[in-house]
Amino acid sequence: MTVIASSGDPAAISAGGLTTLDTFVVAVYLAAMLAMGFRIARKNASTEDFFVGGRDLPAWAVGISLIASLLSTITYLGMPSEMFRTGIGFLTRQLGIPLVLLIVWFLWIPFFMRLRLTSAYEYLERRFNYPTRVIAAAFCICLLLGWMAVVVLTASGAMVEIANLRLGWFFSSDQADADMHAVILGIGLFSVLYTTLGGLRAVVWTDVVQFFVLLIGAFFTMGVIAWQTQSGLGDWLTFSKGYTFEKVEWFSWDVTNRSTVFSISIGMFFWHACTHGANQVALQRYFSVKDVAAARRSFLVNALSSIGLGVLLAGVGLALMYFVLNDGFVSGDMLQTQEQLQSDDLAVRTVAQKRVFPQFIRLYLPSGMRGLVIAALFAAAMSTIDSGANSISTIVTVDFLRRNRKEASSLQGELKVARLLTASMGLVIVGVTIWLYHLSKETNIIDLCQRGFNCFLGPLGGLFVLAMFSRRATPVTVIPAVLVGEAVGIGGSYSMDLFGVQFSTHLVVPASWLATVMVSLFLSLIFQTRATLDSQRWMWKPVVSGETTSPEN
Known about the structure:
By secondary structure, this protein is an all-alpha fold. It has 2 domains: 10-442, Sodium/glucose cotransporter (Up-down Bundle), CATH 1.20.1730.10; 446-553, no CATH class. It is 73% helix and 1% strand. The protein is built from 23 helices and 2 strands. It has a two-stranded antiparallel ribbon. The longest helix has 55 residues, at 175-229. The chain starts with 9 loop residues before the first helix and ends in a 5-residue tail after the last strand.
């Protein structure tokens, strides 16, 4: 079946990029985000409103906001390419979600919602001491800074390739540098502005809009392919059976193998469990609803949305596979990609797989639709910055400034400080991202950073588990354990660079979590430690003088 190109002009197909209509669509989207920020800003009278939305946000909106925040442009563009690599087998990464659902539903949410926290790390001071709280808060800040910088940098690179801006006049005589500077600044400054104005309430409602823009972009992609090729899901599935996918094993003792179903499932389980039980970005969402039932509904919406989006992006991957590899396909830049995808060299195929979705958006989506999908990519990157900047501002305000301030500030005074911090964090990320971009020309800094920031998540997750469930856990045992867990995380993330040995990236979080828990338990046996009765009040099953009480009592 012959594929029909979106334009009969070969030059237009070769160049692609934004048209006037595309630019208008993106501009309308960005203006709408700013308008929401200004409108919501009037509802913020205190940091309670700014950080947790007054604790009365709708559960469904919070759930959608959470998936939008955790979903990056890397994932949005990367999931379809995973279909090229492993076929529908890549959906096995969702196998751990039912177990995560049980843990978050029955353990994390009931426990944290009783405490009425603003920063998750307030709890660690109640259970242990302030130094433990500081370490955890610092780890989370490092995690969020690394996460945001990598997401914005990789997203900007993809959008520059798609948009074909050619802004040689923008802060640089080099066209590639100018385009990157413009996109990074655009993502960062727009996100910072509406987040600084509206706080978490603006983050949640803009994330909802951004999530639906992402969905529309995916549906448009499949719709255009279906129309141009006169095909459908059945044709795509049938065609995919003839494609040679990378073999995926169910289990292997080889810890360097990142493609086994077991390692992917275990890695995704620990990532989700630790994120929802120790990461400020996720927990702050739950703190923004009124009660346990609402928090559970928000998580259920989040889980179902995550599964649904994964299936949808798998469909995009199938559609792109049919479009690119179907006999009769002819077109400029994509011809080399087509040949690479048919190569027996996995390294060559991997590079080609990553470029398929961005190339299709640039070359084949009709004008207007292309602008909407680029707005969707902006949305994914902006939801990362707005969530990260707001969460870091919360941590700095609550865990450091408020905790160490001798005199209480007025509500308006603290709100001004919170907004200033949010704006500062956003500007820091813009600066760091531009610096990383220039550094990446000489080193593989993107890969180094991407492997690095998750090394903080396992120790954080292990620390919270110890706090909630181990009566032998005390500051004497958990502080060394967290540091050892972090060392294991760094060692696993950079095993090839440090030791010349490959280690599966999927196992970094589980390994660092396990090291944290086991070292704390081992030290508790050596030092015969036991939490004081006052500390045990803040455990999952608190005991005070032989009686069970709620943590808030």
